[in-house]
Amino acid sequence: xxxxxxxSLPGVLLLVPRRFGDARGWFTETxxxxxxxxAGLDLAFVQDxxxxxxxxxTLRGLHFQKPPRAQDKLVRCTRGAIFDVAVDARRGSPTxxxxxxxxxxxxxxxxxxxxxxxxxxxxxxxxDTEVQYKCTDVYAPDCDGAxxxxxxxxxxxxxxxxxxxxxxxxxxxxxxxxxTPFETGQA
Length: 187
Ligand SMILES: Cc1cn([C@H]2C[C@H](O)[C@@H](COP(=O)(O)OP(=O)(O)O[C@H]3O[C@@H](C)C(=O)[C@@H](O)[C@H]3O)O2)c(=O)[nH]c1=O
Known about the structure:
Elements: E1 2-6, E2 13-17, E3 19-22, E4 25-28, H1 33-38, E5 47-53, E6 59-65, E7 73-79, E8 81-88, E9 90-91, E10 99-105, E11 111-114, E12 118-124, E13 129-135, E14 144-146, H2 167-170, E15 182-183
Parallel strand pairs: 9-15
Antiparallel strand pairs: 1-2, 2-11, 3-4, 5-13, 6-12, 6-14, 7-11, 7-13, 8-10, 8-12
């Protein structure tokens, strides 16, 4: 029912929910607490987010909320397509500073689980793209932070010469200047 695949970063998981196709179309479970618990993921989500990006090449990230308001995120694309990225920002982690990415599309229904301690961002691969994600803590602007999208060595599959960014993301600190608030093993 739910295929949970590891990625190159321990803790970041690619979830492939089963789709039941019939003459009408298909049905899928996008979140089932019991199945996730069976897969070892006991996550109490408290906020759902939904963003729309008009242009291909819109890049949101790399974002985090620092402790005590850190968030696990379960991300999916419900219209269009994105390349979704997580960067390990946990001080002392063997994979500190490393990134992993996955193509999440409305068509494939894949989901990326980005745990606390990881920066998160995505770029839209086509115009008119919608992304929805669940979070384990509510928005806390005082704990909100950003790291410059192109300062972590991420191989972004940009569909345009330069990405569309928010003012906040354009002015973000570089990963080299970033003093991480995350430790390994931090809940
Ligand atoms: C993230 C967030 C933003 N907002 C408001 C603040 C602001 O006025 C407006 C747009 O916020 P942002 O520019 O931060 O939106 P955006 O750049 O889409 O931020 C999101 O990016 C992705 C990659 C993530 O991982 C998310 O956690 C979040 O940081 O929405 C909320 O009210 N609640 C929220 O949870």
